[in-house]
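re the bet — no i am not wrong, look at it urself. input seq straight from the record:
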Amino acid sequence: MTRPGDRDGFDDEEATSGWREPAHLQGDDEDADRPNFADRRRTPREEGESWTPPGWDLPPAERPEPVDRVADEPAPETPERPAPAPGPFGRRAPRPPTEFERTFAYQGDVVGTQAWAVHHGWTISDGTAPEDAPLAGLVASAPGSRISKDHRAAGVIRGRADQLDLVAFDVAYVDRARVVPQYAITAAPLLLPIPYFRLSPARLWRHRVSGLVQLPTGDEQFDRRWVLATAEDSPEVRRLAGDPGVRQALLATDDGDEFWAAAGYVAAIRPDGHRPLLVEHHARLLTVLVRALTGGI
């Protein structure tokens, strides 16, 4: 039974009257002489000393000086690395490309196309040779909607296919010191002057058609898929429109190429980088177009 004033149910006097300290904590005098004995009943603060277990008093740690260092010799200084120049928004400026990276920057299927060209006896140029100068006018007149003054001919190859002289190259631009091919052009030089014309798939949006007049071929199936436009009605363009071989060849394609005549060439263009199969594809179609324009090669 709990008595008033005793919240825990125990009486302090009764609870402690029979309590005795355990024997291992009593600290007899004979145990005090033992070397590892610690009297837990001693209060360090009352005796004016701090209690520390025996063997815990260690000497302070000191770092010895190297024995071979001269006292008057100054310590060597560590050279500071120059901080990189920050770029926009605090980012590091881009590293300029190395000579190796500039030399082997991607320029379309260079290995495959050039290997094909060498195998067939064609010549190779980087687009800066004197004979490559007229290609700038061909690029400027190309139907591609994204061709700008920054585009140039790259990866140029020249050769002969089916009695037709051809030049094939990529229309590329430079993006951060790397050449990016965007279009593939294959062209055949013409000895006779041909008025400007465009032969484009009907499914493609046509750009730069101001001043051009559409010329129907009379073939309903062909006119649904292809559009022939010219700046001047001429016998050459009329022969092109009425040639059944041209219509048959173009209807058998995927409608992915455009054709035009400018700067002394008749050319084919596709939004792609050049590769051997594309060169051969363009060569077959240009052979048919040139035969129709000139009345035979």
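see?? DSSP finds ten helices and nine strands in the chain. told u. also Residues 276-294 form the longest helix (19 residues). so pay up
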